[in-house]
Amino acid sequence: MASAVRKALNIALVQMKVTANKATNLQVAREKVLAAGQNGADVVVLPECFNSPYGVQHFEQYAEPIEGTAPGESIRALSAMAKDAQVYLVGGTIPEVPQRQLYNTCPIFNRAGHLLATHRKVHLFDIDVPGKMTFRESSVLHAGNHLTQFTTEWGPIGVGICYDLRFPEMAMIAARRGCIAMIYPAAFNITTGPVFFELLQRARAVDNLFFVATCSPARADPEAIRNEGVYPAWGHSSVVGPVGEVIATCDHEDTTVVAQLDLDRLDEARRFYPIYQQRRFDLYPDVAQGL
Ligand SMILES: NC(=O)CC(=O)C(=O)O
């Protein structure tokens, strides 16, 4: 008898504290990914910049190659974690240096530890909110040039990184290519996080009637933020369902958020609100490009 297709997948978001010590970050990530796998996770997500502090002054020092014959230590460690935990691993992001140019890149592994895909942050985080938050990723990073999806037994899943969440086109194209979810390793901050983070996740979910999951670093200690200029991550890693409902979330502490993505929820939302059939691409053909 053919085995029934499972209609739900378990996801775990590892909101870990990131330090200046790469080896410690890799070890902490490993422990948490293995624990998530033991607790039944199918897909585990790490935060944006999980192996290095988040800041343009740090990227070069922590950067590694991802693809090719000599991947860096973070990639070897992530591959082993995915294999040992038997999970799909959306491996947060690391600063990537394929040759001379730097990227902020998310590597994605299957349960055997094979690299399935990489997503290079497409929209770089360049903002200036005077006196609160100035960040200019483009001063050292190059932008990625492709949209990313990977295949699972539940359906394809799209991947973006943090600032990519602000661009609805990316999630919409993923949805129209059949994705059941978008996953974003992210590091919003205490200026933009309270205003935008949940709102953007709920917007992307309800725009497309699919799941959205984000994974942030935990917030550093207040003294390190005040005295050493450490990036003040917002935290609040979350899973949002197809009608914009927050299924699981947290504050800014070191924790793992778990949730079930029940595909019946997605089918039901699309039955109740048939926007996929009702779109009028004849009136907005420029948005129809990109498939
Ligand atoms: N860190 C980011 O890429 C994005 C962010 O913090 C924001 O959009 O706000």
Automatic annotation (TrEMBL):
GO terms for cellular component: mitochondrion. The keyword Cell cycle does not apply. It comes from the Eukaryota. Residues 9-263 form the CN hydrolase domain. Belongs to the carbon-nitrogen hydrolase superfamily. NIT1/NIT2 family. The keyword Hydrolase applies. It comes from Dimargaris cristalligena. GO terms for molecular function: omega-amidase activity. PROSITE patterns: CN_HYDROLASE, UPF0012. Keywords: Hydrolase. This is Carbon-nitrogen hydrolase. One of its GO terms (biological process) is glutamine metabolic process. Gene3D superfamilies: Carbon-nitrogen hydrolase (3.60.110.10). InterPro entries: C-N_Hydrolase (IPR003010), C-N_Hydrolase_sf (IPR036526), Nit1/2_C-N_Hydrolase (IPR045254), UPF0012_CS (IPR001110).
